[in-house]
Structure formats: C-alpha cells, structure tokens
Amino acid sequence: MFRGSLVALVTPMTADGALDFTALDRLLEFHIAAGTDAVVIAGTTGEAPTLEADELEALVARAVATCGDRMPVIGGSGSNCTRKTVDLTRRVRRAGAKAALVVTPYYNKPPQRGLESHYRAVADQGGLPVIMYNVPGRTGCDLQPETAAALASHPGLVGLKEATPDLARLARLRELCPEDFCLLSGDDATSLGFILGGGQGVISVTANAAPRLIKGMCQAALAGEERKARMIDERLKDLHAALFCEPNPIPVKWVVKALGLISAGIRLPLSWMATEHEARVRAAMEKAGLGEPAPDNP
User: Fold this and answer.
1) How buried is 218 (Cβ within 10 angstroms: 0-12 exposed, 13-18 middle, 19+ buried)?
2) Which domains can be identified in the chain, with CATH numbers?
C-alpha cells in the first residue's frame, strides 16, 4: 500500500508549545516538492504522547487539506489502551487520513495473544487500514514476527513499521508474511539494508531534514541500484547518528528549525537540544550537504 520514502513528520510548535499550523503547511509543501511518498502525522517524531485527541484530529485534517491528492497522509493513532486506540483511529479516519499508524501498547507489556487481539480490534473497529508499529526500544513491548505474520492475514492490517536494527528479523518477516504485506523500516541507520533485504521503504526521521536524499536512496534501492543507494546512505550516515544524540525528536527539531522551517517549540517533558550537541549535529548537516544552520531563523 505504501512504498518508498515516508516521513515521520515533526509537529511544529511555537515557543509556548502551541501548534503552529502555518509552519505545518510549510513543512508539507517542503516534502511535496522533495517527492516524499507519504507523511505520518503524530508518530513518535511528532510528539504523539503530548497531543490531545482534538489536536491530533486537527493536525491530520490540516495535513489532508494542504496535501490534497499530492501526498498521502497517515495518522498516528496508537496508545496503550485498545478502546482509546480505536477512538483515535476513528478520529484520524474522520480527518481524512489514508491509513493509521498504530504503535504497540507501551508500558503495560501485553503478551503476544494480547497484541494480536489489540490489533484485530483496531482493524475491525477503527475504519482505516492499519500499519502496525513495532519499536520495542521505546515501548517495552515487542511484536514478534510470528504474531505479525498471523495478523498479516487480516485485510485491515496492511503493513508493519519495524523499528529495530536487526535485519535477520526482516528475513523472518519476509518469509512468513504475504508478498503484498508492506514492510517498512523504522530505523534510518539500517533502512538501506532493510530495503535491499526485501522491505518496501522507510518511515524516516532523517527525511525531515534531507527528504530528497532519503527519497533518492529509496528509489535507488528499490530499483536495485545498490551502488547509488550506498553512496547516498554514506553521505547520510553521520546525520542518522547525530539525530539520536538526544531522544528523538529533540535533535531533528533543532535541525528543521536551523533550516528555517519551524520555530523552537517542543513540549515537556522533552526540551530543546543542549548546546553541547550543536557542533556534532552541525557537522553532520554539512556532510549531508544541508548547509550551515542560520542562528536567526524563526
């Protein structure tokens, strides 16, 4: 259903933490011009845990209105409560999203049978195609390949974002899941290997800052142009790492602000990037060809 370079978009905010819809429009136009294949609103990078349900719906609705038919919009609707996840999925459907990205329930550590029941309930009741999202490093919950494969037979569960660096897991998923089940990387540093190993693309943090490069890498990898894809990936390697010098999305918001696209807004308990990391992030930007951050950007 989805393929190529998908961006896990930052949520633009003003200095006091209010949503900045003008900056959201600017970001979306930036990605449309760069050829980004789809946008995820309110994923991890979009600070989903700090967004109210009405804010989520408003962000998705604005993105859909701005993008029109130029770029599909996916709404992040996961939580650690099945009933709430169904409600949020219905909200992003009402706002016009093409699909929902649903993270595994965090903190309460459900067993695999609980995960299976959770995703089936969301797919049955939410009204949207669902891309499951496995990020055990954040959630303390790991959707196993066998469970994902069992869920892949459900017509409403169309794909999986696998945010682990273990490419052996991809081989197992590809072996077990139907050919038309969409497997997307959620780990920029290993996304090239993921695509070359049979994945269809990446939901990328780095694409916030370098959408044309991520698009080019994905295009080359999917076309079997491995040498070209590796050249682009090498250029991005330091940026991939630097964007996790502090928890995501702290560094990537700093970079997107440096590019003049957003203000320095982030919601507690996250905080703006510490100055001690600026030199490293700036150097990674320069290596990727993103240029010098401008201190007088908005």
Assistant:
1) buried
2) 4-225 (3.20.20.70)
Catalytic annotation, residues: 133, 161
Tokens of 237: 């390697």
Place of tokens 């003003």: 14
Report pLDDT digits (tens) over 108-130. 999 999 999 999 999 999 999 99
> Tokens at residue 15, please?
């200095």
Instruction: Write out pLDDT tens, residues 217-247.
Output: 999 999 999 999 999 999 999 999 999 999 9
H or E element that contains 179 = none
DSSP H or E stretch at residue 282: helix 278-288
Inter-CA distances, 282 with 45, 89, 99, 110, 185, Å = 20, 38, 35, 40, 25
Question: Is the distance from CB of 196 to CB of 219 less than 8 angstroms?
Answer: no
